[in-house]
Specification:
The chain is mainly beta. The protein is about 0% helix and about 25% strand. The radius of gyration is 15 Å and the shape is globular.
Amino acid sequence: MFEGSMVNSSNQASALDTLVYAFDTKSQQWSKPTISETAPPRRMDLQIVQDRSNKVYVFGGLSGPLTGSQNTTWFSDMSILDIARSSWLIVVASGLDYPLPQAGFTATLLTNGTI
């Protein structure tokens, strides 16, 4: 599970913690896997898809007070979590042919591998 914003229920403050959690369906237990490389900035209203090679693609979203940021930032980056290697790759958009920063949208992985 990729987590973007979380609020501490005791004081309603933004609770900054790990970005990735794993749930073991057999033991019914949550864990915090160790992920190498730098994680993408915390965000909310993003979209995630996973392919058959166990890579998780995280696109867009925005940061703000609920994600621990004082300023609102809209993202147009693609972050890829390689589950097998437990590592992040952040792809920064360049050139003219990439989506504008956005949040609150949908994403679908097509059978040809296009998102």
